[in-house]
Amino acid sequence: MAVRLYMNLGLLAESERLPDSADTVVVVEPNIGSTSRTKGNLYLLVTGAGGRKLREATKIVASRIKDDYYYDLSAGISVCLRKAVRADNNILLHSPERPPVPQGEAGPIGIALAVVRGNELYVATLGPAEAYMVRQARLLTLPDASPETGLPAEEIDGPEVWHGEITAGDCLILMSPKITGRIGLGPIQDAVLQLHPQAAVEQIHRQFGSGSLGSTGGDGMLFIEATEVAATHKTAPLKPVWPADPMAGAPERSPIPLADTVA
Asked: Does residue 50 contact residue 245 with C-beta atoms inside 8 Å?
C-alpha cells in the first residue's frame, strides 16, 4: 500500500503567548494539488529581539515572505525562498515599521523557515532564529545559525538554503534562540522524543515562562513531526439513475415530442 508523509504540528495559541513577545508564526499547507506539488508546505518563524514593539515588523516580514514565495513561479524552491527574503528586506527598509539598527550591529529580526514537498525538505535561517532536527534520537542543527545577519540589512544575498530529505519519525524544530539559551537543547530534545509535538511545545513554554527562569519575550517556536499515512483513494460506486416517470420515453407519455410512427 502506498504511503505519504503527514505533518503533525505543535505551536502556541495566540492567547498563550507572552505579552512582550514579538515573534510571529505562519503555517501554509495548500489545499490545491498543483500548488502543493510545486511549492510544498511552508513553515515560517519570524523572531524579533526587541520586545513587543517589533510585533508589527515581524508580521510584515512573515506576510510578505509567504506571499512572495507562493506567487513566484520563476524558479525552484531554493531560489524563490532567497528572492522572497531579499524582496522582503527591501520593503522593511522603507517601511514605517522599520526597527532602528545601530551602526555596525545586525538587524534585530530573524527568520527560520522550512518547506516540505513530498519527502523533500528545505530549511533556511537568518539572524536570531534557529532550526534543528531530531532524527533517530539525535539532535542536528539545520543549517548553521548566523545571528550576525539579521533584518533589516542594507545589503543581503538571502539565506543559504539547506536541501535534504525528511522521513517518518523526523521532527523539525524552528525556535527563538532565547528559548534554547535559557532552557538548553537537552530538555527540548527530551520533550520531542517523549511527547506529541503540541504537548512538547506547551511543556517547553511553561518551563520558559515560569518558575525560576522567569523568562519573557522571544517565545516563538514551531515543531513539525513527519508521520506516515496510507495514500488510499476511494472512488464512489456508480449508482443507477431511474427516471422519475416510469412511462417516460413511451410515445404517448414522453415529455419530449416524438416523430409520428411511420407505418
From this structure: no
Environment class of residue 94 by beta-carbon count within 10 Å: exposed (0-12), middle (13-18) or buried (19+)? exposed
Q: How many helices (H) and strands (E) does the chain have?
A: 6, 10
The CA-atom distances, in angstroms, between 79 and each of 72, 122, 254 are 10, 11, 64
Quote the cell numbers at residue 247.
412511462
In which band, very low, low, confident or very high, does the pLDDT at 19 lie, cut at 50, 70 and 90? Answer: confident
Q: What are the tens digits of pLDDT across the range 56-66?
A: 999 999 999 99
Give Rg (Cα) of the chain: 26
Residue 39 CB neighbours (<10 A):
20
pLDDT digits (tens, 9 = 90+) for 202-215: 999 999 987 555 56
| pTM of the predicted model as reported, rounded to 2 decimal places | 0.84
Name, in order, each residue with C-beta under 8 angstroms of 260's C-beta and a sequence gap of 6 or more.
none
